[in-house]
Amino acid sequence: MTTENPLLLALDLAGTFAFALNGALTAVRVARLDIVGIVTLGMITALGGGIIRDVLIDYLPPATFSDWRYLAVAAAGSLIAFGFGHRMHRLSGLIVVFDAAGLSLFAVTGASKALDMGLGPAQAVILGAITGVGGGTLRDVLLQRIPTVLRSELYAIPALVAATITVLTIRFGVYGIPAAVGAAVACFAIRMVGVRYGLNAPRPPGQTDDEPER
Amino acid sequence: MTTENPLLLALDLAGTFAFALNGALTAVRVARLDIVGIVTLGMITALGGGIIRDVLIDYLPPATFSDWRYLAVAAAGSLIAFGFGHRMHRLSGLIVVFDAAGLSLFAVTGASKALDMGLGPAQAVILGAITGVGGGTLRDVLLQRIPTVLRSELYAIPALVAATITVLTIRFGVYGIPAAVGAAVACFAIRMVGVRYGLNAPRPPGQTDDEPER
Amino acid sequence: MTTENPLLLALDLAGTFAFALNGALTAVRVARLDIVGIVTLGMITALGGGIIRDVLIDYLPPATFSDWRYLAVAAAGSLIAFGFGHRMHRLSGLIVVFDAAGLSLFAVTGASKALDMGLGPAQAVILGAITGVGGGTLRDVLLQRIPTVLRSELYAIPALVAATITVLTIRFGVYGIPAAVGAAVACFAIRMVGVRYGLNAPRPPGQTDDEPER
Question: Which parts of the sequence belong to the Glycine transporter domain (chains A, B, C) (predicted)?
Answer without folding.
Answer: 10-84, 97-169
